[in-house]
């Protein structure tokens, strides 16, 4: 009841705040306004209904040590604290634990994540909006409480907002109030939580913002403000040779196998079955990763596989049964270990009519033989030749072009088959190794076009090219002429990242390109053209 | 041609986010884009087509009127026509009276407009419907995903909606549902409409939909670009500082929170993987507050997301794939509706069909280019073929009955009056003959199209392209080469043979289905329909007989099995024979019919030239020498100088030529202004403007007026301007819309 009232009060006040047209006016009324604002909507600053410590600990199995340490570091009610720096690899529960911890402590905090705040301005305004209890919504045109671009402005505004807020908090604590009207907030410390700090490093002026954040504790110099930084990276990954106030590092290690078991067992209906499932899958998969967000979808799909052979809910789970289930599941485990992501087919919920199904089955039979080595997407013939020439240009060294595409227009295998000395062989080997370590080679556009012309002239000469071979380039007529259309096709190939721009050559200064197509795909394309690509690929 | 002459240099425009690579080739400039420019290019190409079509319909002495404004084709035609009507009649000497000539022109133009609008509507409808099944599937998946998101939890107050921290849920359920839509087409131009249709479809079913393009996912903009674009599409009012909490609060403010938010991303390949990964992770954190469902268009293979996205982003995605119709299938559908079913009466000859087929499969591969080629063919047909205006009424079924027949009569006599008057008038009998010939032609064409459809139906399983089949069916040598069935070896491997062979090999159930589909196609032609009915009866009879034979045999021995096989062979043979009969009796290629010239476009050389850029060359030459053609008194005289009285587009084009390979927009504009207002005047004007602005507006050209005149020669798109000038090589025309960077002059 009291809560509802407070909600309504907040809404009204924010609306009145928005009606103030200019910032000067706003700041003039500020003290009065915060006096109105503060007491009812302080609930904004806490998480929600508090939970007990036991509930907190049971929600996060395997994190008891960290939680207790954090409670110790945050100290008693209203005791000042040094900035905390919580770090650990992703998906170790940093954010959830800190949020739930504050829910347990019921202390006011401001949270802002650099995942959502993508630049300094959005970060500053997000913090200020929370402190000033301002909601951006349609009634105020989705505008922020304060416009703030520069760090110096931010410090001033932040200081104002914090001091007035702390004053309110202190004042209301001192007043003797009946319990039902008492503040829903414990203490007068305000904590600023900054999540995903590692993302700030990628910002343009990263170092300055980082320095600014780390220095904020000193700059503000308000003992009632606590700082908590959350990051995937250890503190020494952030430039640490500056003189900041010492931050207390708290490390969240990866979960152990037992922790993972406990976490996954938490919400399962059939504990026994799931436990036997975990016996099977946990060991092989936890060797690959211990990240919960990675494991849980894999486990979910594997568990479905695991349960498939079980007919009813009251199946007895004995050793024999377990063994049977394991043998059924085993092939799936290996495939799950190897896949990084999975794309599902969407199965329409409504059943298809039988005739339709039959037709489909027939079609599938007819198509199934071809399907495997067919291209999945449409390419025009000249685009295919371009792709193949780009692949060859990337794959073969430029010096080989002359021998591959000589005047006769085809590869001459005999020439290359003369005896070579040991030394040359060794050189070739290292060159081959280089090719694999460096990835596809880059080539200038001229080379691509020259190879394309050679290939297309070969294709033109081939007898099994069906109707219209005299003019297979469509327009242009005699000979392969580089028209805009060819260049446009290069551009559409580069749109789908088959050809990418490599770095420019330091000597020539012209742009070079790379072909990023895998050999499988290139072979597929060649097969669809009946083009003997394998003959042109240089191998030792 | 030696490639050493090609010099490639990269130049990124200062403030533009698009990468541009410029090839200077023998003095000609060719710009093509790696990011986001193809659409603009298409606009320019469409403009070209429009210009070309107009070009065709204007008699030789009036060529230059065309190029005034290119945005909407309809408007152009009208303005061109208006000018033409106003044109001085002194130039006409060829035909005996200009009013008759005008009538002929008008008839042709009207006929073209009617026929082309029919074709356009038909293929648009076909393309809209072709992905209907896939769209339905996507919609039900969206609903399912939405339910899954809803089950994670919900928010109860606006507080919660805008609070910046995630609602505590399992790491496992922090997932984003993403539908990967495989377009199977690397040319994304064809798919732009598809995704717009999809958005429209989902919107009509109550989802909040936003379309994002790869431009929003550029590295420079970062995630802010995407959010800004989302907010712009969802919120009506512009927002200063963008933030996810705004989106969340907007969603909460929507009374109806049972609608999912669908974000459609057209082309995954062209996005910046880094930004997209960030965006995905961010969306997944807000998933409870804003139930976003992603739909991502993938042009090539399903490996792409794995190659592009960050590992953490991949972990957030729950992906599901949908497959759209491939470009081949879409083209088949369009060809079926436009060329085989003859929605408009306009058709093409064998050679043109072969050319179009090669153009599509070998060269360009986009449906839009095929349609463009068809449009050019259509325009050329109407401009060159005198009797083509009869097509106006040709296709309508009822045109051959009663009063409509009278209308046809009227049209013919109008044509006759207009064209044939110099050769002497056709008498009533002649007109009547013509009407009957036309009716016969129409009937033949209908039969032909039914046979082609039946063949296509039979060949579908073999993945035979309709264009291949069409090319064969249009081949006038088909008749002379003899019966299809007899010369199996000579036509082996060809589409028709494939179709017949397929009927021989199909299982029984499918043959029955096939015959059913034939019946559906043949329903309008009584002769064929009757035959199909007979066939169905025969098949039933045969089936029944075989059943009877099989019935007493309980144990199936090898021999019996063979017998059964032989039985089904006979069954298939009947159907195949029927198909052969159909081909022999009814499929008369169009070019073998009398007076097919009226409906059939045959000039493949001209079409080739048009597609290869011949009209562009002509337009360019005309633009450079506009004075010579206009022969007006105001700007003729010494050849080289530019005068303000010249046509605006011509001035702009000549200036762009003078500047050489790269034009600075600002300089270009300044030159243009200088020509319109010589230097002294400009100074005067600025002084005057400071003093008394309002009074002088009539006399002086205002800045705005010059800019608008200048942009007549350009096509503005967003904040970019593309010049419609094309540079030429000495002998080859290069189509190179020159990108000029931002219009802002900073």
UniProtKB/TrEMBL annotation, chain A:
Name recorded for this polypeptide: Origin of replication complex subunit 5
MF annotations from Gene Ontology: DNA replication origin binding
Domain of life: Eukaryota
Residue ranges of every copy of the Origin recognition complex subunit 5 C-terminal domain listed in the record: 379-537
InterPro entries the record matches: AAA_16, ORC5, ORC5_C, P-loop_NTPase
Record SUPFAM superfamilies: P-loop containing nucleoside triphosphate hydrolases
CC per GO annotation: nuclear origin of replication recognition complex
GO annotation terms (biological process): DNA replication initiation
Keywords from the UniProt entry: ATP-binding, Nucleotide-binding
Region: Disordered, residue numbers: 1-31, 403-439
Family per similarity comment: Belongs to the ORC5 family.
Span of domain Orc1-like AAA ATPase: 59-216
Coiled coil: none
One Pfam family, short name: AAA_16
Automatic annotation (TrEMBL), chain B:
Subcellular location as annotated: Nucleus
Location of the Origin recognition complex subunit 3 winged helix C-terminal domain: 616-702
InterPro entries for the chain: ORC3, ORC3_N, ORC_WH_C
A Gene Ontology term for the protein's cellular component: nuclear pre-replicative complex
GO terms classed as biological process: DNA replication initiation
Transmembrane spans: 38-58
Domain Origin recognition complex subunit 3 N-terminal: from-to ranges: 98-389
Keyword flag Transmembrane: yes
Keywords recorded for this protein, A-Z: DNA replication, DNA-binding, Membrane, Nucleus, Transmembrane, Transmembrane helix
Domain of life: Eukaryota
Pfam families registered for this protein in UniProt: ORC3_N, WHD_ORC
GO molecular function: DNA replication origin binding
Record family assignment: Belongs to the ORC3 family.
Protein name: Origin of replication complex subunit 3
């Amino acid at each position: 009841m009291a809560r509802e009232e407070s909600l309504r009060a907040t809404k009204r006040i924010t609306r009145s705040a928005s009606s103030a047209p200019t910032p000067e006016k706003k700041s003039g009324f500020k003290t009065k306004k915060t006096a109105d604002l503060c007491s009812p909507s302080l609930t904004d600053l806490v998480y929600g209904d508090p939970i007990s410590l036991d509930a907190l600990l049971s929600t996060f199995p395997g994190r008891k040590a960290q939680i207790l340490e954090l409670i110790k570091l945050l100290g008693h009610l209203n005791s000042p604290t040094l900035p905390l720096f919580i770090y650990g690899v992703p998906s170790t529960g940093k954010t959830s634990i800190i949020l739930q911890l504050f829910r347990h402590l019921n202390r006011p905090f401001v949270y802002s994540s650099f995942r959502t705040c993508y630049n300094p301005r959005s970060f500053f305004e997000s913090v200020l909006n929370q402190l000033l209890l301002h909601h951006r919504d349609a009634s105020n045109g989705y505008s922020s409480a304060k416009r703030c671009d520069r760090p110096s402005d931010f410090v001033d505004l932040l200081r104002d907002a914090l001091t007035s807020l702390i004053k309110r908090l202190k004042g209301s604590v001192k007043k003797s109030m009946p319990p039902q009207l008492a503040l829903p907030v414990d203490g007068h410390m305000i904590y600023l939580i900054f999540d995903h700090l590692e993302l700030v490093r990628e910002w343009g002026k990263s170092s300055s913002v980082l320095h600014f954040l780390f220095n904020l504790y000193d700059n503000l110099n308000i003992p009632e403000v606590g700082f908590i930084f959350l990051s995937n990276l250890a503190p020494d990954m952030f430039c640490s040779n500056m003189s900041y106030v010492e931050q207390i590092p708290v490390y969240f290690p990866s979960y152990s196998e037992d922790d993972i078991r406990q976490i996954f067992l938490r919400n399962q209906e059939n504990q026994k079955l799931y436990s036997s499932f975990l016996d099977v899958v946990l060991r092989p998969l936890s060797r690959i990763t211990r990240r919960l967000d990675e494991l849980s979808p894999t486990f979910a799909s594997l568990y479905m596989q695991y349960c498939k052979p079980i007919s009813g809910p009251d199946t007895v789970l004995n050793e024999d049964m377990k063994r049977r289930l394991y043998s059924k599941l085993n092939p799936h485990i290996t495939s799950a270990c190897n896949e990084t992501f999975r794309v599902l087919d969407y199965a329409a919920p409504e059943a298809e009519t039988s005739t339709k199904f039959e037709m489909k089955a027939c079609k599938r039979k007819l198509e199934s033989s071809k399907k495997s080595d067919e291209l999945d997407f449409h390419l025009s013939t000249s685009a295919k030749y371009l792709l193949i020439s780009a692949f060859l240009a990337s794959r073969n060294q430029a010096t080989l072009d002359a021998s591959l595409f000589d005047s006769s227009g085809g590869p001459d295998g005999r020439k290359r088959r003369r005896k070579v000395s040991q030394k040359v062989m060794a050189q070739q080997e290292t060159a081959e190794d280089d090719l694999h370590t460096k990835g596809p080679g880059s080539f200038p556009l001229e080379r691509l076009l020259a190879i394309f012309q050679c290939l297309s002239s070969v294709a033109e000469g081939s007898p099994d090219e069906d109707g219209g071979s005299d003019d297979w380039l469509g327009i242009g007529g005699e000979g392969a002429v580089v028209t805009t259309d060819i260049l446009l096709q290069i551009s559409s190939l580069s749109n789908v990242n088959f050809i990418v721009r490599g770095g420019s050559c330091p000597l020539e200064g012209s742009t070079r390109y790379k072909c990023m197509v895998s050999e499988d795909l290139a072979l597929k394309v060649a097969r669809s053209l009946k083009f003997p690509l394998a003959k042109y690929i240089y191998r030792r | 041609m030696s490639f050493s002459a090609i010099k490639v240099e990269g130049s990124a425009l200062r403030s533009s986010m698009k990468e541009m690579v410029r090839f200077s080739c023998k003095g000609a400039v060719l710009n093509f884009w790696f990011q986001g420019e193809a659409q603009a290019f298409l606009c320019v190409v469409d403009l070209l087509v429009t210009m070309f079509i107009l070009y065709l319909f204007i008699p030789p002495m009036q060529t230059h009127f065309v190029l005034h404004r290119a945005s909407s084709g309809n408007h152009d035609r009208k303005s061109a026509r208006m000018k033409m009507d106003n044109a001085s009649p002194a130039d006409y000497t060829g035909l005996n009276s200009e009013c008759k000539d005008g009538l002929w022109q008008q008839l042709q133009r009207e006929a073209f407009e009617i026929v082309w609008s029919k074709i356009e509507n038909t293929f648009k409808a076909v393309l809209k419907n072709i992905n209907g099944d896939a769209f339905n599937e996507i919609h039900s998946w969206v609903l399912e995903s939405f339910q899954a998101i809803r089950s994670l939890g919900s928010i109860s107050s606006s507080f919660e909606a805008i609070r910046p921290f995630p609602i505590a849920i399992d790491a496992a359920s922090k997932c984003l549902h993403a539908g990967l839509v495989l377009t199977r087409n690397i040319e994304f131009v064809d798919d732009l409409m598809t995704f717009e249709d999809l958005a429209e479809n989902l919107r009509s079913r109550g989802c909040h939909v936003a379309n994002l393009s790869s431009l929003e996912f550029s590295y420079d903009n970062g995630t802010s670009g995407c959010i800004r674009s989302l907010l712009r599409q969802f919120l009506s009012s512009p927002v200063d500082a963008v933030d996810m909490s705004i989106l969340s609060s907007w969603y909460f403010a929507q009374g109806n929170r049972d609608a999912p938010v669908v974000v459609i991303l057209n082309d995954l390949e062209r996005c910046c993987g880094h930004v997209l990964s960030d965006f995905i992770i961010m969306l997944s954190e807000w998933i409870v507050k804003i139930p976003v469902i992603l739909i991502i268009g993938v042009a090539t293979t399903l490996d792409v997301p794995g190659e592009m996205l960050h590992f953490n982003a991949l972990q957030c995605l729950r992906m599901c794939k949908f497959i759209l119709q491939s470009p081949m299938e879409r083209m088949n559908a369009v060809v079926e509706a436009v060329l085989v079913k003859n929605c408009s009466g306009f058709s093409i000859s064998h050679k043109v069909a072969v050319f179009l087929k090669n153009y599509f499969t070998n060269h360009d591969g986009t449906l839009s280019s095929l349609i463009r080629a068809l449009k050019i063919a259509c325009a050329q047909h109407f401009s060159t073929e005198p009797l083509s205006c009869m097509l106006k009424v040709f296709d309508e079924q009822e045109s051959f009955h009663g009063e409509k027949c009278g209308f046809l009569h009227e049209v013919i006599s109008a044509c006759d009056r207009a064209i044939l008057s110099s050769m002497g008038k056709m008498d009533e009998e002649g007109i009547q003959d013509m009407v009957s010939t036309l009716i016969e032609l129409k009937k033949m064409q209908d039969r032909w199209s039914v046979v082609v459809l039946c063949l296509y139906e039979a060949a579908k399983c073999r993945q035979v392209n309709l264009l291949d089949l069409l090319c064969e069916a249009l081949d006038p040598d088909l008749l002379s080469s003899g019966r299809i069935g007899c010369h199996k070896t000579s036509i082996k491997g060809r589409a028709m043979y494939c179709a017949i062979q397929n009927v021989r090999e199909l299982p029984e159930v499918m043959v029955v289905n096939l015959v059913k589909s034939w019946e559906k196609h043949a329903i309008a032609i009584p002769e064929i329909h009757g035959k199909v009915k007979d066939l169905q009866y025969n098949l039933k009879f045969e089936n029944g007989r075989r059943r009877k034979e099989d019935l007493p045999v309980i144990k199936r021995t090898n021999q019996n099995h063979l017998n059964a096989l032989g039985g089904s062979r006979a069954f298939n043979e009947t159907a195949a024979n029927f198909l052969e009969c159909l081909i022999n009796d009814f499929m008369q290629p169009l070019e073998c019919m009398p007076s097919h010239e009226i409906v059939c476009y045959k000039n493949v050389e001209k079409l080739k030239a048009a597609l290869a850029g011949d009209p562009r060359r002509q337009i360019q030459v005309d633009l450079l020498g506009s004075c010579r053609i206009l022969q007006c008194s105001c700007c003729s005289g010494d050849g080289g100088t530019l005068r303000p009285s010249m046509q605006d587009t011509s001035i702009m084009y000549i200036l762009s030529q003078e500047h050489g390979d790269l034009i600075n927009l600002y300089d270009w504009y300044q030159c243009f202004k200088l020509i319109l207002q010589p230097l002294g005047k400009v100074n005067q004007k600025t002084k005057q403007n400071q003093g008394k602005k309002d009074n002088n507006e009539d006399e002086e050209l205002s800045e705005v007026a010059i800019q608008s005149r200048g942009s007549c020669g350009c096509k503005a798109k967003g904040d970019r301007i593309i010049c419609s000038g094309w540079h030429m090589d000495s002998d080859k025309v290069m189509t190179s819309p020159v990108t000029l960077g931002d219009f802002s002059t900073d």
